[in-house]
């Protein structure tokens, strides 16, 4: 388990890794981003209605730590083994079904899921701070810039 005191020290590392992760989004060539967002919200809502959150409480298996004999010169001691209870956690058993319903709904509307690499800093700097409002044609070199306001820009490095 991570010490709670160390979490603030790890936060910049975690945020840095997230910002480098590829961007996954629904894509329709020539489609409007605002329309994709509206369609996505509608599909998410439908999926949540058709496969509502169904959390189940579960417990992982207990762990047994065997005892042992410990000697320090003339004396030996025996420590008995002991059990540690398993961790308790929750699982949304409908999560996978909900995702499949959402993907199918978006697919029926003509979208596909794409994964774009994040643009390197020099490309991002040259591209400026615009945002994509209509999806461009994608190529092998297309990359994405995440904007601070949650919007994004798809760039075709030239």
Could you please describe the fold and organization of this structure?
The structure is a single chain. With 158 residues, the chain is an alpha+beta fold. 34% of the residues lie in helices and 29% in strands. The protein has a domain at 4-51 and 110-155. The protein has helices spanning 7-20, 33-50, 95-108, 121-127, and strands at 23-27, 55-59, 63-65, 68-72, 75-79, 82-84, 88-92, 112-118, 143-146, 152-155. The strands form four sheets. Strands 1-8-9-10 form a four-stranded mixed sheet. Helix 2 packs across helix 3. The protein is elongated and about 80 Å long. It starts with 6 loop residues before the first helix and ends with a strand.
């Amino acid at each position: 388990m991570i010490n709670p005191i160390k979490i603030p020290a790890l936060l910049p590392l975690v945020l840095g890794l997230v910002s480098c992760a590829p961007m996954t989004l629904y894509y329709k060539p020539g489609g409007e981003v605002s329309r994709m967002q509206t369609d996505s919200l509608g599909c998410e809502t439908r999926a949540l209605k058709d496969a509502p959150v169904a959390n189940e409480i579960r417990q992982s298996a207990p762990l047994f730590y065997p005892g042992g004999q410990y000697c320090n010169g003339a004396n030996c001691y025996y420590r008995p083994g002991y059990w540690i209870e398993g961790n308790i956690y929750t699982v949304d058993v409908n999560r996978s079904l909900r995702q499949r319903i959402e993907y199918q709904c978006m697919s029926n509307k003509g979208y596909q899921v794409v994964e774009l690499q994040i643009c390197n800093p020099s490309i991002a700097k040259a591209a400026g701070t615009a945002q994509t409002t209509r999806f461009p044609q994608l190529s092998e070199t297309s990359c994405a810039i995440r904007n601070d306001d949650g919007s994004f820009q798809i760039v075709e490095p030239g």
